[in-house]
Specification:
The structure is a homodimer. By secondary structure, the first copy, chain A, is of the alpha+beta class. Chain A has a domain at 353-442: Rossmann fold. Chain A is built from 14 helices and 19 strands. Chain A has helices spanning 15-34, 48-51, 86-96, 142-162, 174-183, 189-196, 199-213, 218-228, 237-242, 249-268, 330-339, 363-374, 389-399, 433-436, and strands at 38-39, 45-47, 62-66, 79-81, 104-113, 125-134, 167-173, 231-232, 273-276, 289-295, 305-315, 320-329, 343-345, 353-355, 380-382, 403-407, 410-415, 421-425, 440-442. In chain A, the strands form four sheets. Chain A has a nine-stranded mixed sheet. In chain A, strand 14 (353-355), helix 12 (363-374) and strand 15 (380-382) form a beta-alpha-beta unit. The longest helix of chain A is centred in the middle third of the chain and has 21 residues, at 142-162. The interface between A and B is large, with 81 and 81 residues. Strand 3 of chain A pairs antiparallel with strand 3 of chain B, so a sheet runs across the interface.
Chain lengths: 445, 445
């Protein structure tokens, strides 16, 4: 099922692979809308000044220039392709605040572009699916509990329906870590986070040494490392942290909120979420809860779904818009699974019935049969050519079309998988529900 | 309903407007899939060499450059954003021919970009919906009949469902015109087409004069003008053309095929399609049948859906891929109608029920109610704050959410439009089907 991708970093799917992607996107849309998220799309471009708003551009951006423009003259209104859906969403909220009702719940499924050097699992064009809830000046903490549950619900539906591997979402909290460090008397928690982030890569000894370099050693360093090793599937992480004997108001807040997230997930998504205080990377970026998600058994693919809380997603000086959200890397998750043949569609077309054509003179009759079937929601094609029936059946077979219709409105329908053929009326016949839509099948080890 | 669009030419929709667009895209998808078209998406970029493949670039292309690249060094692998879906589709067919079954029927709904000067009805980013059928070396003429019927079916569904104005599709044929000109002894039909194209703009006299300039005058010029004025809703155009007394094999072919298109449309889309031999513009580009479509009463918007037959959509030297297709300008059709408030959604969120929260201690109960409702496909939100009930009802009202739930699993549900409130069980209650999905309403004069 794998195929040539001549433009490196720009994955394209074959029709049967796209049917899988459509199925996944439909499940996401259905789930998000069941939770009251409304869809928006933002334009693909933002002014470069907006993309570089935070002073630093750590993403490789594709800059646009009109073909007729002089490349040597710099354009003050230069546009770039968006590299995520968060920056455009923040801009959209500011621009349309007067037309939106807060808290505003939106989902957004679009492509984003990064001019990075392509490598395994990295793309220059890829699809993301984001959900966010944004408040006006304030946003209640229970939305930090809600957001991961919505994404877990969508991923669980895919797990149940097509055998997508189960996920494990790891959750941490900036208040918790920052409160803990401040409780130890540390004034620069960011410097600690940077070093703790390397724990998995360089090990305890090296991290301890790098903490010593910024004046943190002995018992404090040991406690920092101990905190980062706390990981529990239930609320017991609270006691484990308490046992380290550190006190701070922020720590209390962080523990309470993370306990709520874990507790709610145990009820509605048991086994899919853990408190994991080793997460440090996201804490630099987000200001509260942070989420990272792996496909169990496919951890090497990295996090497929990440997000967290921003105290200020956007601000116009007068009003601040705090938000909490999570993003699913649709391409990042699907493209490798499709390339490996782990997920496939039962056919390469939506078609359920091919109406055979006896001769070109009766094509009109075949078209009438097709219309009758379509009027009841049955995807139908008329055979392109009045070939011998055997050839028309092969035409259906090559595409995985399950049924071939012979004759007119009162005709016969053949299930080409079993060879069964029976009289049928085009005004009444309906295939089994399983055949009505394309099936998505998983081939997991 | 109109809103600020600070980046000229890049229209963005408010949530309620996007709900209308989603509805329209769903109807398109459903219709195309009922006819056995499979969806594909192509990457947003193509090598500039591909975009300029035909030697001339008459579109304004957005060229990409990586931020870190030196703008003064020209890149041989330069990429540009696609300006239509035909060029990328042709490339996709060539690239994947070995994996596709022909005739290949695909639909494609994506954004395209043109760096044009923005003006009324012209956008720099807009959504197109294309259907095409592509053959390998040959493609039967009956697909020229099929393609317009599929698009007309989708547009008719929108007309019936939400009162979108009826459409009129004008169809002509290159063989017909070319055969007619050749039958008159003219060797350069293209030069004639260019001049006839101006008929509506500059009138008969000026066109006659411009024909005289290329040596065509008197009776021939009169016949050319007469041909361009033939327009019939039935097959009578054949007799009108025959009455002009011109004979040519190509003319016969063109008349026969156009008659088939008109005849099939009279049966399945009565009143929606006419033979209109004034169409000349498309004939330069396409090689057979051509289609143009207007919204009746909104003709000033121009053609919302155009297409035609290519004898060679793509070719790799060995194999030629003829195709016939039609494209719907989704943004071109919708954005002006949305801005004028002609189409609107019944609410600005998918949500059917807001579950009120009595106090923060019982939020868990409210979440359980919401889960029960969602499990039966009812889009539900839990109130963000345990405000006074009046305030929670206003929260629903502002978004157009029709129902508010009070109490737990055995609670009460209020229709806030009528004020009716009744006891209900979250395990059993279901709203009327009309409320289950967002309604799209037309406000036509």
């Amino acid at each position: 099922m794998s195929r040539i991708r001549p433009l490196s970093g720009f994955p394209e799917l074959l029709p049967a692979q796209r049917l899988v992607e459509q199925y996944v996107l439909d499940v996401l849309r259905e789930t998000f809308e069941l939770h009251g998220f409304v869809n928006i799309e933002t334009r693909a471009v933002e002014p470069m000044s907006q993309l570089a708003r935070k002073g630093e551009i750590d993403k490789e951006i594709y800059v646009l220039r009109r073909l007729s423009a002089d490349p040597t003259v710099s354009d003050p209104d230069e546009l770039g392709l968006h590299f995520d859906l968060t920056v455009p969403f923040a801009r959209y909220v500011l621009e349309n605040a007067g037309h939106l009702a807060f808290p505003f719940r939106r989902y957004q499924i679009q492509k984003v572009w990064r001019g990075e050097r392509p490598q395994e699992g990295r793309y220059r064009e890829f699809t993301q699916a984001d959900i966010d809830i944004v408040g006006e000046n304030a946003l209640a903490a229970h939305h930090d509990v809600e957001i991961p549950l919505v994404m877990l619900e969508a991923l669980e539906k895919l797990h149940v329906a097509v055998g997508l591997p189960p996920v494990l979402m790891r959750v941490s909290n900036r208040q918790l870590a920052e409160g803990f460090y401040r409780g130890l008397g540390i004034e620069e928690p960011a410097a600690v986070l940077q070093r703790v982030d390397k724990l998995e890569k360089i090990g305890v000894e090296a991290v301890t040494q790098s903490l010593a370099e910024i004046g943190i050693d002995g018992e404090k360093a040991a406690k920092i490392v101990a905190l980062a090793r706390v990981r529990t599937a239930d609320e017991s992480f609270v006691d484990q942290v308490r046992a380290l004997g550190v006190e701070h108001e922020l720590l209390d807040q962080g523990l309470a909120l993370l306990r709520e997230v874990v507790s709610a997930a145990r009820e509605t998504a048991p086994g899919r979420l853990v408190a994991d205080l080793s997460i440090a990377r996201g804490l630099d970026y987000y200001t509260g809860t942070v989420y990272e998600t792996q496909l169990v058994g496919y951890e090497s693919m990295g996090s497929i779904s990440s997000g967290g809380r921003y105290d200020s997603l956007a601000s116009d000086g007068k009003t601040t818009y705090p938000g909490v959200g999570i993003s699913l890397g649709v391409s990042r998750m699907l493209v490798p699974l499709l390339a490996k043949g782990k997920l496939a569609a039962s056919r390469s077309v939506p078609t359920v019935v091919l109406v055979a054509v006896t001769d070109e003179e009766t094509r009109g009759e075949a078209m009438a049969v097709a219309r009758a079937l379509r009027s009841r929601g049955i995807s139908t094609e008329v055979a392109p050519k009045a070939d011998k029936f055997g050839k028309q059946i092969r035409h259906a077979d090559r595409r995985g079309i399950p049924y071939v219709w012979f004759g007119g409105m009162a005709g016969e329908v053949k299930d080409i998988r079993t060879g069964d053929q029976a009289a049928a009326s085009a005004d009444a016949w309906t295939p089994p529900a399983d055949d009505l839509t394309v099936g998505i099948v998983g081939a997991w080890d």
